[in-house]
Amino acid sequence: MSNGKVKVVIAMLIFGTISIFVKNIDLATNQIAFYRGALGSLFLWGTLLVRKERIPMPLIKANAKFLLLSGFAVGMNWILLFEAYRYTTVSNATLSYYFQPIFMMLLAPIIFKESLTVKKLGYVLLAMLGMFLIIGVSQNNGTYNHPVGVGFGLAAALFYAIAIISNKKVTGLSGIQLTSLTLVIATVILIPYVALTSGFGLSRLGGTSILALLILGIIHTGVAYVLMFSGSQEIESQTFAVLSYIDPVTAIAVSSIFLQEDLSTLQVAGGMLILAAAFLNEYTGKREKAVSVGND
């Protein structure tokens, strides 16, 4: 396995275990999102300093509009995903969150003027069927409110898609530079929101919460993003797309093994339909581009 593939695999395995640490932090979701961004920002900016890599101010000004939108979307994405973990199982939250490629597909005709083919509409319907299977068999109990949790997961996926679209509009910045700026903006945007709603909750932090928060901010944000971006630059996009499915598979395995969450046969089937729809959309999209280039 190449060095690039190893980096991406490790990053996806790290992302897949995020729920364990979020569940062990005794803070509100907006507070967790803020500290994750702050710690991740410090790590990434420290990485830039070690590498003696500067971000030219003209590039920041030229991309300011999309950087701000991306930062806002990332902050909202974190809050909504962590909220999903509180209302439903990690498995349901992860599978609903993996609707992000479907949202990308639906937004592409509006943002990038790309055509929405019958085949792609079929993938959307396939993913929707999978979501109905998951929600339909998830019964509410004293601990969970699954429809609400899945709703938060879908909203998180939408904001993730907005962040990706915004990043595609940014030019001239490397992956680490873009991520560093995005995390700083997300953190700054979250400061007034956290201050006016829940406060920063430092007095509530015990030893377990502090350790989990440090791991979340440094490992699951700083290290994982560095590995993901550097690895993605060393391998083909299609290979990266395939390896990215290690994330949801790991998250579901973690929820079953470590968090003792049950997943019914119908929910497994629904999850497979969502992942299949997302994978087929990416795979066929890459093939269509390859054929188009070959015919030019």
TrEMBL record:
<keyword id="KW-0472">Membrane</keyword>
<keyword id="KW-0812">Transmembrane</keyword>
<dbReference type="InterPro" id="IPR037185">
    <property type="entry name" value="EmrE-like"/>
</dbReference>
<feature type="domain" description="EamA">
    <location>
        <begin position="8"/>
        <end position="135"/>
    </location>
</feature>
<dbReference type="Pfam" id="PF00892">
    <property type="entry name" value="EamA"/>
</dbReference>
<keyword id="KW-1133">Transmembrane helix</keyword>
<comment type="similarity">
    <text>Belongs to the EamA transporter family.</text>
</comment>
<feature type="transmembrane region" description="Helical">
    <location>
        <begin position="144"/>
        <end position="166"/>
    </location>
</feature>
<feature type="transmembrane region" description="Helical">
    <location>
        <begin position="62"/>
        <end position="82"/>
    </location>
</feature>
<protein>
    <recommendedName>
        <fullName>EamA domain-containing protein</fullName>
    </recommendedName>
</protein>
<feature type="transmembrane region" description="Helical">
    <location>
        <begin position="32"/>
        <end position="50"/>
    </location>
</feature>
<keyword id="KW-1003">Cell membrane</keyword>
<feature type="transmembrane region" description="Helical">
    <location>
        <begin position="94"/>
        <end position="112"/>
    </location>
</feature>
<dbReference type="GO" id="GO:0005886">
    <property type="term" value="C:plasma membrane"/>
</dbReference>
<feature type="transmembrane region" description="Helical">
    <location>
        <begin position="7"/>
        <end position="26"/>
    </location>
</feature>
<dbReference type="InterPro" id="IPR050638">
    <property type="entry name" value="AA-Vitamin_Transporters"/>
</dbReference>
<feature type="transmembrane region" description="Helical">
    <location>
        <begin position="121"/>
        <end position="138"/>
    </location>
</feature>
<feature type="transmembrane region" description="Helical">
    <location>
        <begin position="240"/>
        <end position="259"/>
    </location>
</feature>
<feature type="transmembrane region" description="Helical">
    <location>
        <begin position="178"/>
        <end position="196"/>
    </location>
</feature>
<feature type="transmembrane region" description="Helical">
    <location>
        <begin position="265"/>
        <end position="283"/>
    </location>
</feature>
<dbReference type="InterPro" id="IPR000620">
    <property type="entry name" value="EamA_dom"/>
</dbReference>
<feature type="domain" description="EamA">
    <location>
        <begin position="149"/>
        <end position="280"/>
    </location>
</feature>
<feature type="transmembrane region" description="Helical">
    <location>
        <begin position="208"/>
        <end position="228"/>
    </location>
</feature>
